[in-house]
UniProtKB/TrEMBL annotation:
This is 3-hydroxy-3-methylglutaryl coenzyme A reductase. Its EC number is 1.1.1.88. The gene is mvaA. Belongs to the HMG-CoA reductase family. Pathway: Metabolic intermediate metabolism; (R)-mevalonate degradation; (S)-3-hydroxy-3-methylglutaryl-CoA from (R)-mevalonate: step 1/1. Transmembrane segments: none annotated. The lineage of its organism: Bacteria, Pseudomonadati, Bacteroidota, Flavobacteriia, Flavobacteriales. InterPro entries: HMG_CoA_Rdtase (IPR002202), HMG_CoA_Rdtase_bac-typ (IPR004553), HMG_CoA_Rdtase_cat_sf (IPR023074), HMG_CoA_Rdtase_CS (IPR023076), HMG_CoA_Rdtase_NAD(P)-bd_sf (IPR009023), HMG_CoA_Rdtase_sub-bd_dom_sf (IPR009029). It comes from Patiriisocius marinistellae. The keyword NAD applies. Keywords: NAD, Oxidoreductase.
Length: 437
């Protein structure tokens, strides 16, 4: 039985590892060796990574890949992607190439409004509360002058504070719903700082509001936090071309286009398919969000909530054929930034921004939406033609070979052999075993 540890965070990295080793890894010195193998020999670089979070003991690598040939709004991009799933970058590259000579992708930011709420209780007279809010609103706004100063210079800041009565759903529950523009920043810290000051002003000023004094019922702050549901921070990306240009895998273009439209309709019809359909989209989106140092949990949460905004979880992409033109598009919320957070700190994030030609937040929203659309197109293209496993297993081949500790010669021979034979785990094991006997 391991004893609890106190002040763990105060220990040095070596001491932390020693503690882990003594308490959990006594029989596994290999793990400790591996932990240290993943330390960067450049001490300053390692220190930078150590300081991102608490209790860092090592680095956890994920591959950083690039998907070239993305024509977006007539600019050619190579998109950085961080992901562990073997087929994702290949699929994105494939879709980029496919649309390259068909006009590429068009993308457009539709809105950029973020939001957050001060959640509070009030069990007194609601009319008093409404009067108080109307009176206090200018003071609430001016209470964040100092915090907003720089954001305002960059064209952002608080847009409005709305009073919302949610007592129909939860007794005594109200919100100050605050909307913001945050420019090129994702803005989480800015929004949360504003909300906390607004909340304390709202609470403090209430002490001298006469009707509250008389009734002895005051608003009680529960919490103040931004919302990751950002349905007014939207981006749209699309591709289109005549169906005659869509001949794929020997399939007639019109038939292929109709199959894609049907596949999207199926994702719209049932959450079981929609979740997987959208998961494929998020393969692309998360990979770019991670590569650019953004918060993929925030994006995931917001996107999936948006996918169910009408009460049913449904497809994020849409497709139609009209007058012989195939159109395929996505619309989704993306609260991301190109300044602040890890963006100025992580050397590989800096690389990602250089590679993307230093996009602003809106351009990055467009790039990310396009990657999601491309990923969905690539998945559906395989699914409605040859099936997903052909490409997946081809990409997974190297993982299987590495799992079998294959030599470089074995790998080269296996790659050659499996160009003409279906890849499965057992087929690869047999291949390697035969080579070794
Ligand atoms: C796998 O990571 C993603 C797919 O399942 C997406 C889809 O089914 O559309 C291939």
């Amino acid at each position: 039985m391991v004893n609890p540890v106190s002040g763990f965070y105060k220990k040095t990295k070596e001491q932390k590892i020693k503690w882990l080793s003594a308490n959990y890894l006594a029989d596994d010195s290999q793990s400790i060796t591996i932990l240290k193998k993943y330390w960067n020999s450049d001490e300053a670089l390692q220190k930078l990574h150590d300081d991102f979070i608490e209790n860092t003991i090592s680095n956890y690598y994920l591959p950083l890949g690039v998907a070239p040939n993305f024509l977006i709004n007539d600019n050619l991009y190579t998109i950085p992607m961080v992901i562990e799933e073997s087929s994702v970058v290949a699929a994105a590259s494939n879709a980029a190439k496919f649309w390259l000579n068909k006009g590429g992708f068009k993308a457009q930011v539709l809105s950029t409004i973020k939001n957050g709420q001060v959640h509070f209780n009030f069990f007194g007279n609601v009319t008093d509360l409404e009067t108080y809010f109307a009176e206090i609103k200018p003071t609430l706004i001016s209470s964040i002058d100092a915090i907003q100063k720089n954001m305002k210079k960059r064209g952002g800041g608080l847009l409005d504070i709305e009073f919302i009565n949610i007592t129909d759903t939860l007794e005594g529950y109200f919100q100050l719903h605050c909307t913001f523009e945050t420019g090129d920043a994702m803005g989480a810290n800015f929004i949360n700082s504003c909300l906390e000051v607004i909340a304390s002003t709202f609470k403090n000023e209430a002490q001298s509001f006469q009707p509250f004094k008389i009734s002895e019922a005051y608003p009680e702050i529960v919490m103040s936090i931004l919302s990751n549901y950002v349905p007014d921070c939207l981006v749209r990306a699309e591709v289109s071309c005549p169906v005659s240009k869509l001949n794929v895998e020997g399939m007639d273009g019109a038939i292929f286009a109709n199959k894609i439209v049907r596949a999207v309709a199926i994702a719209k019809a049932t959450p079981r398919r929609a979740v997987t359909h959208n998961k494929g989209i998020m393969n692309g989106i998360d990979a770019v969000v991670l590569a650019t140092g953004n918060d993929f949990r925030a994006v995931e949460a917001g996107v999936h909530a948006y996918a169910s905004k009408d009460g049913n979880y449904t497809s994020l992409t849409h497709a139609k054929v009209e007058k012989g033109i195939f159109k395929f598009w996505i619309e989704l919320p993306l609260a991301i930034g190109t300044v602040g957070g890890l963006t100025n700190l992580h050397p590989l994030v800096k690389f990602a921004f250089s590679l993307l030609q230093k996009p602003n937040a809106k351009q990055l929203m467009e790039i990310i939406a396009v990657t999601g659309l491309a990923q969905n197109f690539a998945a559906l293209k395989s699914l409605v033609t040859v099936g997903i496993q052909k490409g997946h297993m081809k990409m997974h081949l190297m993982n299987i070979l590495n799992g079998l500790n294959a030599s470089e010669i074995e790998k080269t021979e296996a790659v050659e052999y499996f160009k003409k034979h279906p890849v499965s785990h057992s087929a690869v094991v047999n291949f390697v075993t035969n080579k070794r006997t």
